[in-house]
Design goal:
CATH superfamily of the largest domain in chain A: P-loop containing nucleotide triphosphate hydrolases
Number of strands of chain B: 0
Oligomer: heterodimer
Number of helices of chain A: 12
Distance between the termini of chain A: 45 Å
Number of strands of chain A: 10
Helix content of chain A: 25-40%
CATH class of the largest domain in chain A: Alpha Beta
Largest interface: A-B, 42 and 31 residues
Largest sheet of chain A: 6 strands, mixed
Radius of gyration of chain A: 20 Å
Strand content of chain A: 15-25%
CATH topology of the largest domain in chain A: Rossmann fold
Structural class of chain B: mainly alpha
Order of helices and strands of chain B: HHHHHHHHHHH
Distance between the termini of chain B: 32 Å
Chain lengths: 280, 254
């Protein structure tokens, strides 16, 4: 089932000349795990803002084309309505946690919708359990580690029960352990609840095994849209300055010297397995 | 004005009778102590009020925090004592110092024992619009964040050669500019990104928002309110209907 349909989308921010994104055509189905990547300033964040209606409702500028989320055209529906379809998680958890305790943070979004108290309580409990953050319930944001903060930020949009979760570099402010916790959480949401994931991420080594599709952007346009192994076996990522995971680099080098494998290693673990087999 | 003075108004989580009171009850308490303190100008009734304000501080087991707040205001208290002894007399000066101590105690008894979120919720239930109450609770939420950011900027600028302690008073104030400008720029950026996140969580979707928590006055609150009213009535009675009682106007034996 098609959840996101972007047709010929271009956007130019107010007071700028160049469009931040142009001629974007993208269709995403339910349950997909899409990795969106590209050099900084390529328009990834702008594309994310288009998905829940922040563009055109919150940011001024000129928008062309249409974004249709689960049947709703973002031009015709306000952000709070779209927010129930698309949960947006940002880079800095500090700016997403506005309450003084975790429970309140989770309740914030459904409270805004005016849902009955029992329903809010139910959603908060479910989400706390799902993300295994029940023990943090009464903590203030500054008492949490970076990874915990970002998981609470994810939880705080999940209480709106979105079908789609868009995460804009959710791990770039985190240490490796925190990043891993967050990425595992995202994977779990995708696998167990069939939440469609669009993830902007630079730690490709960690995330590539989970993804079903890689979308590569450069200078405001989509230049590649393929399954992960295909995407990184082409020369395009390196040309635009996207870091190719070590495992795939190794794979490519081994191919050059004439070795043959039956699958492409997407993670360091895969690569290790392949190598042990070869070396036997 | 030192940092210790502000520590007086920093909430600390504890499980005591006073901490568990409804913020509205405590607001009323502070209001009553404040009114009484401003009604009297002689030592005895202010001393009585001071003892009365001590009771909630003792019950809240927050004597240490309260003392540190008083310590922060020592200079101010001495200043008031000296100025008033010159302008009026020592009796009046001592009374004024007592009055300030009562005010500080009454306010720290409130802020030391009231979670900022509960304060915001109390305001909402007192019909203050959600936007205002939310702005207030966000302000308290971001104090530590901004403090940390200010520290980072200060470290960065000092490692580039900024000397904060250099020069006279005007120069010292001017030294702060390289700290304040980046702090403001960062805060504006942060505000944008917070707004984005609020927007993405259906902020302002409908006028009538629901709340997960609801504050309720309990038996404990009513008991406390009874004592407060009894105290207030007594003090008013002493002030307006008993104006000639000599012990109330007792003066220091000089």
């Amino acid at each position: 089932m098609v959840l996101i349909e972007i047709k010929n989308l271009s956007f130019t921010y107010a007071n700028t000349e160049e469009p931040a994104i142009k001629n974007i055509d993208l269709t995403i189905n339910e349950g997909e795990f899409v990795l969106l990547t590209g050099p900084s300033g390529c328009g990834k964040t702008t594309l994310c803002r288009c998905l829940n209606g922040l563009i055109p409702h919150f940011y001024n500028g000129e928008m062309e084309g249409d974004v249709i989320i689960d049947g709703l055209n973002t031009k015709e529906h306000p952000v709070y309505e779209l927010a129930q379809k698309v949960g947006l998680v940002f880079q800095d958890p500090e700016n997403q946690l506005v309450s003084l305790n975790v429970e309140k943070e989770l309740a914030f979004a459904p409270e805004n919708l005016g849902l009955p108290r029992e329903e809010i309580r139910k959603r908060v409990e479910e989400t706390l359990q799902l993300l295994k953050i029940e023990h943090l319930r009464h903590k203030a944001p500054y008492e949490l580690s970076g990874g915990e903060q970002q998981r609470v930020a994810i939880a705080s949009v999940l209480t709106l029960k979105p079908k789609i979760l868009v995460l804009d570099e959710p791990t770039s402010n985190l240490d490796p352990k925190g990043a891993e916790q967050v990425l595992k959480t995202i994977k779990k949401l995708n696998e167990e609840l069939n939440v469609t994931i669009i993830l902007i991420e630079h730690r490709l080594d960690l995330i590539l095994p989970y993804t079903s599709r890689v979308v590569l952007m450069d200078k405001g346009e989509i230049i590649l849209d393929a399954p992960p192994y295909e995407a990184f076996c082409s020369s395009i990522p390196e040309e635009i300055g996207v870091d190719v995971p070590v495992s795939i680099k190794l794979y490519n080098e081994l191919l050059k010297i004439g070795m043959k494998f039956n699958k492409v290693p997407l993670s360091t673990k895969d690569a290790a397995e392949l190598l042990t087999e070869v070396l036997k | 004005m030192s940092y210790t003075m502000f520590s007086a108004f920093e909430f600390k989580r504890k499980d005591t009778y006073i901490h568990n009171l409804d913020p509205r009850t405590k607001m009323f308490m502070t209001l009553i102590f404040m009114t009484v303190a401003l009604l009297f100008t002689s030592i005895v009734p202010l001393l009585i009020t001071f003892i009365a304000t001590l009771i909630p501080v003792l019950l809240a087991k927050s004597v240490k925090e309260w003392l540190s707040s008083l310590k922060g205001t020592t200079m101010l208290l001495v200043f008031i004592l000296v100025i008033n002894s010159f302008v009026r007399d020592l009796n009046f000066a001592v009374a004024m110092v007592l009055r300030l101590i009562v005010l500080i105690t009454a306010f720290s008894a409130f802020f030391l024992t009231t979670h900022p979120d509960d304060l915001a919720q109390a305001l909402i239930q007192m019909k203050v619009p959600f936007d205002f109450a939310f702005a207030l609770s966000m302000a308290t939420r971001y104090v530590p964040t901004l403090a940390r950011e200010a520290q980072t900027i200060m470290d960065a600028q000092m490692s580039r050669g900024l000397e904060l302690q250099r020069g006279g008073l005007t120069q010292k104030i001017r030294n702060l500019i390289p700290l304040i400008i980046p702090l403001i720029v960062n805060s504006v950026r942060r505000a944008m990104s917070i707004a984005e996140s609020l927007e993405s969580r259906a902020f302002g979707a409908i006028k009538k928002r629901t709340y997960l928590y609801q504050l309720k006055l309990t038996k404990g609150d009513f008991l406390f309110l009874c004592f407060l009213i009894m105290y207030f009535v007594t003090m008013i009675y002493l002030k307006f209907y008993f104006p000639f009682t000599t012990w109330m106007e007792w003066k220091l034996p000089l």
